[in-house]
Amino acid sequence: MGKLEGKIAVVTGGNSGIGLATAEAFVVEGAHVFVTGRRQAELDAAVAHIGSNVTAVQGDVSKPEDLDRLYRQVKHEKGKIDVLFANAGIGNRARLGEITDKHIDDLLCAEQVFYFDADGLLRRHDYIPDVIGWGPVAHYTSEHREFDGIMVPTRRRVYPVDPDGNVEDEPLVMAIDLDSVKFS
Questions:
Q1: Greater pLDDT, 111 or 20
Q2: How far from 17 is each of 48, 52, 74, 169, CA to CA, in Å?
Q3: d(CA 184, CA 169)
Q4: Which of 24, 82, 87, 139 could bridge 13 with an S-S bond, Cβ 3.0-4.6 Å?
Q5: Domain ends where: 89, 113, 129?
Q6: How many angstroms separate the CA atoms of 128 and 30, rounded?
């Protein structure tokens, strides 16, 4: 029995690259996976590559109506989401040595930044939450524990980031401490 047996997963940008590899790994571990992407032909190829326990949903994650349609389909077909792998992203291509500050600024404004440690555990996640007008934040995770074979950070702290990219000590935007996690 796989670690994700009977789980429902959604992988955005699941039609190629890391998203496709993740979707394939989730299926191998027993999950039914919904993969999303903007191009139907690539989605069809991803489904053919993975084979079974995979559903393609064409859409652009930057469009709320496409996200609504995705979640309506998942809810209708499977009732819930157990695992969300937010992988879709955009970026301008440039050769090494031709990358400008504008390339980086454009990418970081549209993307989230994840920091992993040597063991592959998420330690910090930078993003701009769409909550009560907050600006950029740094979301720190720690005290990872295993629950049903899945590593989960049980301590989370979110702090604001100033315009220069420095994490501020105050105010604490959010704190979450988990004692136990149950996957159903």
A1: 20
A2: 15, 19, 23, 37
A3: 36
A4: 87
A5: 89
A6: 33
Residue 104 pLDDT level (bands cut at 50, 70, 90) = low
How do residues 2-52 score in pLDDT, each as one tens digit? 889 999 999 988 898 888 999 999 999 999 999 999 999 999 999 999 999
Q: How far apart are CA 50 and CA 172, in angstroms?
A: 43
pTM of whole model > 0.70?
no
- Check whether residue 10 and residue 76 sit in a common domain: yes
Task: Find the helix or strand (DSSP H, E) in which 155 lies.
Answer: strand 150-160
- The verdict on 113 and 68 lying in the same domain is no
Cβ-based neighbour number of residue 151 at 10 Å? 12
For the chain, helix, strand, coil in percent to 5 are: 25, 30, 45
| CATH number of the domain to which 3 belongs | 3.40.50.720
